[in-house]
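Quick question, first post here. What does this chain look like in 3D?
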Amino acid sequence: MYEVLMFDGGVHKIDELLDLIEDLGGFVLQRTQVQVMVTLTIAIPAEDRPLIEKKTAELGGKIVEVPLAGTEIAVIGPTLGRHHMPHPICDIAEHLRRYGAITIVMGLARGRGRKTCQISAAEKAIIEEYDAAIFMLGNFKECVTHEKIDLYKDIQIPVVTVIGPELESLPHCEALVCGVGRKVERMRRSEEIAKLEEIADRVKEVIDKRRKEIEEDPLFVHPSEVKDALEDIDAVQECLRPAPVVLHVDGLRVKIPYKKHLKELEGLEVYGRKLKDIATISDCRLGDSTIIRIKTKAEVEGKVR
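> Answer (accepted):
Ran it through. Tokens below.
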């Protein structure tokens, strides 16, 4: 299993670390350099972490834990208007980025009002392209328990629910965080930051559970290995959008048009196999992007037989 870490240090002898990562069969997922300082997000075999830590110490750098690296998470509110809670939603999204996650903020088209809040099939399909979803449902206990839980009950990805009232549990979600509702200002106080940490912890637990489930029937290749191959495609190299290739727990999002590049993606070789044989490639519901879901070893080997 690969572990995602972040190296933070100077550029002096950084090539030694890059060579070690390559020798271990790891990958550099992202590199950011500002003058003489460099930040590397890397994926390495978990058992080889001590070697990376030793080399990091030699170079005078440090290893930073990024437990949510390689995930894309949706933070969702009934609406993004002042009637609901734009400030906590943005604060949660920003806080999760500090742990390595790619986050998006989403408001539902018919979210305003207890009796009128709805979620469409198209909105569900968009949400299910992410690794996990955080739903913020407001301050009123009866509104949450009787009406708004229907917004996420059919969502097929892990859901973390964030609400204002104190409840022991809610149905249809993998985790619940209470005490965060509507606010008209940013979450800056110590107790509010503690709530952001609690939300991040619940999300980490949900993602870790999903990763353990995948380990029981491992993916044929790790998403970072497919990312390494995708970066040789001209369209990906020329893409000006932020993070042209985004890792998911079980696949990737590639920010190039699906219809235009489908044949090229299907024919991409990864360890001697075409991508179409080891992954499901589909059109993204939002924007000119492509979703790649990697098949498990059992699915690929069963098909070969």
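The radius of gyration is 21 Å.
The longest helix spans residues 190-216.
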